[in-house]
Each structure stands twice: as structure tokens, then as C-alpha cells.
Amino acid sequence: MTDGMTPTLGAFGDFGGRYTSELLLPALDELAQALEDIVPSKSFQETFARELADWAGRPTPITSLGRFAEGTGIEIWAKREDLLHGGAHKTNNVVGQGLLAARLGKTRLIAETGAGQHGLATASVGARHGMETVIYMGAVDIARQQPNVKAMELMGATVIPVTGGAATLKEAINEALREWTASVGRTHYLLGTVCGPDPFPRLVRTFQSVIGTEARHQFAANAGGIPDACFACVGGGSNAIGLFSGFLNDDGVALFGAEPAGESSTRHGLTLSRGDPGLLHGARTYVLQDGDGQILEAHSLAAGLDYPGVGPEHAHLKESGRARYLGVTDEEALDAFERLSRTEGIVPAFESAHALALARRAVADGLVAAGSRVLVNLSGRGQKDLDTYFALGRDSESTGRASS
Amino acid sequence: MSLASLQARLAQPDPSFSPFFVLGDPDPDTSLAIAQAAIRGGADMLEFGLPFSDPCADGPSVQTACSRALRAGMTVDQAFEIMRTLRSASDVPFNLLVYANLVHRRGPASFVADAVAAGASSLLVPDVPPEEGTELGAACHHAGLGLVHLAGPRTTTDRITALGDAATAFLYLAGRQGITGASEAVPDETLHAIRTAAAASTVPVCVGFGLKTRRHLADVFRAGARIAIVGSALVDVLASCLDDAGSPRDVTALTDRIEQEVADRSRWSGTQGV
Ligand SMILES: Cc1ncc(COP(=O)(O)O)c(C=O)c1O
Fold first, then answer.
1. CB < 8 Å from A in window 4-43 of B
2. Do A15 and A315 form a contact (C-beta atoms < 8 A)?
């Protein structure tokens, strides 16, 4: 590379690295060391597994979505992270990082949140460990995810609104990084997805890989063999990495990430499909940016996908061709949200609805052959999105449709 | 060469005072006039931040300054243009503070070449530590641009030495563990860190983050700093001269005020006190 910048620390190919202030390096070193020494230890793994089972409700099942799949030409199975304690896959990561923070002697947790799911999950482990918990959340997201905000406060967390910029996930991460710089020492920054400086992408992947490990066994037991393809939505990319990690070495399993195509060609969050390499939040990865390198705002109906960056491992999976990333519009996601509710009695999170929508059009798009069996990560449940959904006024239309 | 003018300045017995501004704040024309006023006020060095959409090392004052500049349409090319204009009339050294993605976007070699052509003496990229900065270091070395590394009040002595060895212009010691923003006093932790850094570093120590008054400058110079930077406190003065829409109420009043604020903190001889 003649005029590039290539990462060295914790790199996934040409992506990742530790592009942060010197003032944060000691904390990142400490965490990287803990990932090597503490996380693989028998005592940590046993406690982690027990906590996931007894407190968080793992394993989550996989469910065959027979009625939802009608007309698609494929068999669709869902990994039910919506049934996990807290209502989304975010809980896997916070259980792991919460335990690690406790082992490192930290007494305070800070976290960013977009949809509020990660904030909620962090507040819950903060309560479980008796740690002071502070959540940074964009003011726009606070307005659209009120039930989650109130629940975080109920569990004793302080929610700090972040203004400036688009006042969504990117700004919340900026503020959490600033706060962490000032409070390193007794504070652990519990980053909620596979983005950020090394070792976060590796750390979060480690804790989310339980999704893929379980799903692989369950698919073999319930459906037989391995799926032809996996689908997951991609915000920062943690639920997708979690599922993909179980099948990365199976060349026969195609991997697809659903990115938010938003409402138009200028209002979207198509980081991998439309962005290009840059440095954001400590990693070299794909970003939405202008010609100078200013980061652009992302847009999605799904607050958890509203992010102009993405975890560096996804950038690598894209470049290597191992995974493909495609856009799903707000409208397509809403259709899938309604369809899953009506056909299977499961209300998915708006984020997860993106993955469901992509799976439904997979044959039409030429992603998989007719007759394929696919696994979709149902990353979370839709309760948090009901206020937004009802405010769209689609429910009166759809009720009309259903009764006609 | 601009790096030579920085080195000549640092070779003088008296320490250097540098104001910090975000280029393009509140708009490109006013920003140029503000920098000219700072030079008239007697600044020994100027530190310029290029506005960035996500300034993670900065507190509210500089964040807002970045937003004002970007809203006024400021670009990297325009920032270099302002520097070229200033350079044609002055040989005051310029240290550039630039977030990594702006450097990455042009590629380090191109960015550094453009910065040197615009008159920059040195460059600090706060989110590229030496471990990730091989290409950047090589580009600076090749183009003759001074490289600055950041350290903090809790950075270990060994690490200070390593950072100083990796830097070619000076070591930038953040006066506090955290982000930029003006404070009311210089904490003892900072003064201690300056003394340690001055002893451990092979390059001159510059202090920024949290400094505000002439007394603060006297304190950090006495502890061994060779450069002191006042940023947020001056940006706050600038902001106090803007209307609700972020435009200067009176450009002449604003630049006079900046000139005065800079003059109040300039012209050190020896390490005399307040
Ligand atoms: C239910 C759900 N799915 C997906 C996401 C996106 O995050 P990630 O891409 O890290 O899985 C979120 C984020 O808040 C979420 O709440």
C-alpha cells in the first residue's frame, strides 16, 4: 500500500486497529490482556455459561417459520434472540463484559445505546453487579425509544441525552469515548457492538459467538445438516458476527448482512454497500463520509441500525467476499415486521425485520436457490418499536386489509 | 522550511505561547482575520484544528467550534488556503491538529505534502498512536513535517520517553486526563506530570488541555513546559462575540478582542512570573 494507513493491533485484514488517543491506550491494553488471560480461563467460562443460562435464559431456540416463508420458495428458520432476557442479543455481550469488568475490579459501567436495547442490557448487568451505570443516548433516540429509557432508569441507570450532530448512535459513542477518557481506571466502557478500537471487536465477537455455536447444533438437530445461508441485520454488526461465527468455515453456507436502505437514496445507512474505508471510533472500517473525510449522518427507521460505521470484521468479510451485504428499505422492513406478526405471532424488532425482509426476497434476488434452507437471526423483539409503529398509522390500514 | 522556524523558536531561551483555533470558525473569512489578530497579539506559535464531524478528544467548546466551521462550509482545501495566506505574511510556526480520518481520506503522504505546502511546521493526529502511525511517521519524515505525539498526565515515564523518541517536533502533554476544555486551576497532578515529562522526553514538552489564564502559563512554564497552548478559553471568547445564529456581531470588535487576549498571554522573557 503506497499511500494508505493499515492497522496493526487486532487487525482483520486491512481493517480494525487501535486508532485512539494515547490517553485511552492503557485501558485498551488492560482489556486486551484480559481477553487473553481471563476470558478463556475455565472459571470465567463456567461463570459466563451459568449466568447466560440461569439469569439470561439461554439457550434460545430456533423456530421454523412455515407461514412466514410461504411464497418465498425457501425454508426459513429463525434464531430466537428475541426470547433472550432483555429482549435482544445485546444481553450476551453485557453478561460477558459485566463479568470481565467485575474481575478487573471496575465499579462503574458506561455505555452508548441506539435503540436502547444495549442500554437496557447494560443497566440490567449494572444492577446485577451493583455497579453505578451511566448510559449515553442520542436525544433523537431517547424520543423514539421511550419505553427502553424508562426501563433503564427503573433498573437504576442514569441516562444522559447526547445532542449535536444527528443525536443518534454515532454521537452517543463519541460521548461515551470522551467520558471514558476522563474516567478510565474504575470505569469500564461496555461497548455494545463489534465496532470501536481493538480489542472491542474481538471481545464482543467472543461473547456473541454463543449465537452461532448454539444455532449450528440446533439446526443440525432440528432441520438436519447445515443451512444453505445465514441472514442477519447489520448495525454495528454484533448479532451478525455472532451468527456468522458459527458458519464462517463452512464454504457451503452463504452469509448475508442486511443494511438499512432507509427511506431514499440519500437517507440510508448503507455503510458497506455505499461507503468506503475510513477511520471511525478507533477502527479502520467502512464508513459513510464525504470527500474530505467528514462522517455523514446515517438514517434508518431502526435506531439500532442508524450508524455510519460498521465493525471492522464485516469490512474484511466484504472485501474477502466471504459475506455479502445488501440494502433493505424501511418499507420492506415494515412489511416483514407486519408479516411475521400476523403469520407467526412474533413481533420482531425493526432491526431484525431487515434480516427477515432480505431472507424473503433471497430467491428473487438470486442470493439462494429455490428449495434452500436458511437461518435468520431474529436479533430482538419489537415491543420497543410499537409506539413508533402505531404512530405511522399503518395499523389501521393493515387491520382494514386483514378484515377485507 | 516551517519546521525550521518552529525549531528556531524552541531554541530561544523564553518559552512559547500558542493560541488554538479551529480553522473556519465561525466562518472562513472571520477565521483568517482571527488568526491574523493572534499573530499581531504576539503569538509565538499557532495551533490550528481542522474541523471534524466527530472530535472525540474535544470538549463542548471545540465541538461547537467544529460544528460552526462545518456549517459555514469549511473544507480541508479552504483550511490550507487560509494557512497559505497567513504564511505569505508571517513565519510564525503552525502546529496542525487533525483527526485521523481527514488524513486517511487523502492518504498520509498527500495530506502531509499539502500541509507542508500550506506552511505547516508540525502535525498532531490525536487518534493515531505511534503503534498505528508507521505510514504517517514515514510521510512526515519524508516531507520534513514535524511530528507531534500526545501523552497524558498518567502516561508512564518509559512511555513518555518512547513517545518523545517517536516525535520529531515536540511532545504534547494533555494537562488533564480527559478532553479539551478550560479549567480554573492547573492541578498538581499536571504540574508533576510536566516535571516528569520534561525530564524523560528527548523533545520539548508542550502543554495543552485546560489552560486558560496567564497564571496557568506561568505555572506550566515554571514546571518545565516549553510551549503552552490555550484553546477552549479563547474559543469561548470567540463564541461570546457571536450572535444566536453563530455569526460575528462585529468582526472588528471580535478580532480586537482576540488580539488583546493573545497579547495578555504573550511576550515571555525568561520564565518570569505573572
Ligand atoms: C434488536 C437489535 N438488532 C440489531 C441491532 C443492531 O446491532 P448489531 O448490528 O450490533 O447487532 C440492535 C441494536 O440496538 C438491536 O437492538
1. none
2. yes
Query: Would you list the DSSP string of B106-168?
Result: H-HHHHHHHHHHTT--EEE-TT--GGG-HHHHHHHHHHT-EEEEEE-TT--HHHHHHHHHH-S
For residues A45 and A64, state if they share a domain. no
Structural domain of A178 = 11-52+90-189
- Distance, in Å, from the CA atom of B242 to the CA atom of A239, rounded to the nearest integer, reads 46
Which residue, among A353, A361, A362, has the nearest Cα to A380 in the 3D structure? Answer: A353
Residues A213 and A185 in one domain: no
Question: From the list B131, B150, B177, which residue is nearest A8 (CB)?
Answer: B131
CATH, residue A117: 3.40.50.1100
Q: Does A6 contact B135 at a Cβ distance shorter than 8 Å?
A: yes
- In the chain, the amino acid numbered B31 is S
Does one domain contain both A143 and A241?
Answer: no
Chain A residues in contact with B106 (beta carbon < 8 A)? 293
Contact B105 A289 (CB under 8 A): yes
Q: Which three cell numbers stand for residue B214?
A: 496567564
pLDDT one-digit tens code per residue, A337-365: 999 999 999 999 999 999 999 999 999 99
Q: How far apart are CA A244 and CA A273, in angstroms?
A: 18
Binding site membership of A233 for ligand 1 (Cβ less than 6 Å): yes
Does a structural domain hold residue B274? Answer: no
Alpha-carbon span A248 to A232, nearest angstrom: 14
pLDDT of residue A3: 62
- As given in the structure block, the three cell numbers for residue A347 are 413481533
Cα–Cα–Cα angle for B254, B57, A296, rounded to 5 degrees: 85
Residue with cell 474477502: A320
CA–CA separation, A206 and A194 (whole Å): 10
pLDDT digit string, tens, across residues A120-173: 999 999 999 999 999 999 998 898 788 899 999 999 999 999 998 888 899 999
* Model-level ipTM above the cut of 0.90: yes
CB atoms within 10 A of CB A399: 10
Rounded Cα–Cα distance for residues A256 and A366 (Å)? 12
Count structural domains, chain A: 2
Q: Which residue of B has its CA nearest to A290?
A: B105
- Provide the b/e sequence for B119-157 (b: ≥16 CB within 10 Å): bbbbbbbbbbbbebbebbbebbeebebbbbbbbbbebee
Q: Is A266 helix (H, G, I), strand (E, B) or coil?
A: coil
Output the domain CATH number for residue B224: 3.20.20.70
